[in-house]
Amino acid sequence: MSSSRTRVAVSALLVTVIAASASAEGQPSKGEQTLTYRKAIYQTMVWNFARLGAMAQGKIPYEAKEFEMRASRVAALTPMLAETYVPDTRGLADSKAKPELWSNRADFDAKLQTLVDNSAKLAAVAKTGDFEQSKAAFFDTANACKSCHDKYRAD
To answer: 28-152 architecture in CATH?
Structure first.
């Protein structure tokens, strides 16, 4: 092979290696992807939970159908959170999970299950259209969120 062909081949190989390396470095890790998924679930929950809270607190008029729809969404989302708290996400810079979450995993899992259960009850009660019961179920669910955030979420 001539020296110019060799240089072209080596250059092409180096460009390929550098491009592949840059691509691998730019690719989020499995933990980062999982954290992005977790944040998306929480963001969607907050979007729906905020309207529920506004109705429960009397800041906006209670609309039974909207309350039911948003409560059902929250109930569908909360079980998905369990799959997002995996070791690959531990200690990531963008995570708000305190280290205590990992050292008290059984307590965290119990609190998460309470959230899942309360969210399911909220959705069931919301289907009845009873404002007072829906309001009480909302606050039970909100308190389940708060109990976990107080202990395991960094601000």
So the answer is: Up-down Bundle (1.20)
Provide the CA 24 distance to its chain's centre, in angstroms: 25
Q: How far is residue 9's CA from residue 24's CA, in Å, rounded to a whole number?
A: 22
Given pLDDT bands bounded at 50, 70 and 90, which one contains residue 26?
A: confident
3-state secondary structure of 153: strand
Q: Nearest CA to 29 among 76, 94, 75, 80?
A: 94
**Residues 134 and 125: beta-carbon distance below 8 Å:** yes
Burial grade of 138 (CB within 10 A; 0-12, 13-18, 19 or more): buried
Mean pLDDT, to the nearest integer, of 29-46? 97
User: Residue 97: what are its φ and ψ, rounded to 5°?
Assistant: -75, 125
